[in-house]
Amino acid sequence: MTSETVPKASSGEYDVAILGAGIAGSMLGAVLARQGLRVLLLDAGLHPRFAIGESTIPYTSTVAQIIAERYDVPEIAALSSFEAIRSQVSPMCGKKRNFGFVYHEEGKQQDPAQVNQEVIPGQPEIHLYRQDVDAYFFYVAVRYGAEGRMATRITDIDIDPDRGVTLLADGGEKFQAKYLVDGSGFRSPVAQKMNLRDSPTRARHHCRAMFTHMVGVTRFDDSTAGKKQHQPVPWHEGTLHHVFKGGWLWVIPFDNHEGALSPLCSVGLQLDERMFPKPDCTPQQEFDDFLRRYPEIAEQFRDARTVRPWVSTGRLQYSASNTIGDRYCLTSHAAGFIDALYSRGLTNTVDIVNALSGRLIAAAREDDWSTERFRYIDRLQQGLFDVHDDMVYSSYVAFRNYDLWNAVIRVWKATSFMTWVPTQKALTEFRLGHGEGVFDALERSATPGLPGPAGPDVAALLEFTRNTCIAVDAGDKPADVAAAEMWARLRATQCLPEPLGLANPANKTPESNPELVKKVIAWGQQEAPEHIRPMFAGHIV
């Protein structure tokens, strides 16, 4: 997309005002400003600042590339390259060569056979040092012409469906815009003003969290339990998840590559608050108590110490009944949140920035801000929310039994891989000159959040998984029976590429290499169900 003439705003009026100058708001602001829109980027805080959501996945990288090339903002492509992020954005970032999951049972030694690792093919993904990355994209937006106003808190919003939006700041200043995007987070001013929060949330999943940055965290590979394991890639070279009944612990190192400058490690403990009510003690005391119950995890934190205060939350899940309306849209964490599991926060962010940017640019050029133009954004956000809720809820239930967990994690792999393939294919076709229609085709899915043609198949598998785990959660089905049913369903799901071995319980730490990729593509072109084959036809990468 190239810059075209946008109708000139009246004096003092912006085309789009964005609340929240984190990574979502700043990326969106950079795209819109690059395309000639008059953008106001507001935030109550200042950069740099601590933020979580530090881990990317291949889908995130692909969509970041799409945004960069589709909207001519090459700086955003750095999100898809470990080397680029280190050289262009921040040398404090870490690399991610794998998703690692180590299963623990309280009171028992860790079984080396109860591990799962998903190796990322090709170049590594990234552990983002968010305070540097968020600030970088804010300044990219400003460089392209967005007006940045930090330390500016919005106290009131007035929306006229025919004329636009008036914002009142805490210092008495007023701002006017034709459209308002709220990417500010849970305390979204628009959600509060329009009474958009579901009460209670429709999320089935429950958890609270505590997180910080530490130094002195031991490589799990060097621990007693870690030395017993034989996974393809060291745990330290990826995002490590310690999973157990009722929750999980993330370990995200920034010092895991040659030439690393950062000694930091992001650490976060997620707990089902119904099983683990918030205690009357400090977060550090709670963390120490957790480690006493899991000594093989504790060994990793023997010499660790925090370098910033713990953040400790209540229940994290919230949702919105609607994410669009006359002259406004909620995005990212203003719209809703589930859990950090599977690194879906940034994935959902880039999905929304990509889909919303084109609509805002077209609205400005045509001076048509009708709500119907943005209807798909709500369908997409609600679909992404529900998919993630189903996947995470099912995973927490499965944490009770390794065999069930070993099956449920394959469903996550299916949702991840089968959404990445058509998206990567669309990017490749766009590069070959096929135009923006390739991205429009991705939006014509009957299952928003799971693009076709495999979307309905994966949605059906996910629905089966959710319903099976609901039965386990309610005590109506033993976990071992549910596991057997899950494996049978995985074997019967014909859209899953056979070379990936997702239906093989023993295939827990598969190698990932170019030969495997070739086998998957060949399967997709020659052996996949007929309706799946177009997804693998022609060029993918």
Précis, in short:
By secondary structure, the chain is α/β, with parallel strands linked by helices. It has helices at 23-34, 58-70, 82-89, 130-143, 189-193, 283-293, 295-298, 332-335, 344-366, 375-398, 402-431, 437-443, 455-473, 479-492, 514-526, 533-536, and strands at residues 13-19, 39-42, 94-96, 98-103, 115-119, 125-127, 147-149, 154-160, 164-169, 174-182, 208-215, 239-244, 247-253, 265-271, 305-306, 311-312, 324-325, 328-330.
Low-pLDDT stretches are none
Q: Strand-residue fraction?
A: 15-25%
Number of strands: 18
Helical percentage? 25-40%
Return the average pLDDT rounded to an integer: 95
Instruction: Tell me the span between the first and last alpha carbons.
Output: 21 Å
The 3D shape can be described as globular
Q: What would you say the CATH architecture of the largest domain is?
A: 3-Layer(bba) Sandwich
The CATH top-level class label of the largest domain = Alpha Beta
CATH evolutionary superfamily of the largest domain: FAD/NAD(P)-binding domain
CATH topology call of the largest domain = FAD/NAD(P)-binding domain
Instruction: Please count the helical segments.
Output: 16
Largest sheet: 8 strands, mixed
Task: Supply the number of structural domains.
Answer: 3
Radius of gyration, in angstroms, nearest whole number: 23 Å
Structural class: alpha/beta
